[in-house]
Amino acid sequence: MKTLKGEHIYLRALEPEDLEFIHEIENNQDIWEISNTITPYSKFLIKQYLDHAHKDIFEVKQLRLVICNYEDVPLGMIDLFDFDFKHRRAGVGVLIKDVENRQKGYGKEALELLINYCKMHLDLHQLYCNISEDNTMSLKLFKSHGFEIVGLKKDWNFVNGSFKNEYLLQIRFK
To answer: Mind listing the domains of the chain with CATH numbers?
Structure first.
């Protein structure tokens, strides 16, 4: 599918072989703030999730794709969540797993591919994302693709003993 192939990366469906990769991501406490996670996930639960990952976005209301380079190395994940067919919108999140692979354009290219996929194949009207006020790199990434800040949720997330504000951003098509 051309829509999911870029110059440096491509997006692909989850595979059973992604168990270790996803287990590392889901159990990395450094990124729990981004994923709103507070407990680790077992390999058993992730395997169950992978066993059902083939289900259609219209059924499960989400789509998780692996961001890979052309050496077939998984670099991160990009997700659509809260997929709402009636209102033609979804939330989006992107994560590059290893710090040394961040700020190299992989997330930017993945987001561009996903936006095109949402317009061409899902016929979405809009995407949104939630980003902590202090996550300047993610704010820069999403703004570079036309997402606009449409709200500020004050004291929204409790992280490491204090509350953080969170921005709501959205992009509309057509």
So the answer is: 2-172 (3.40.630.30)
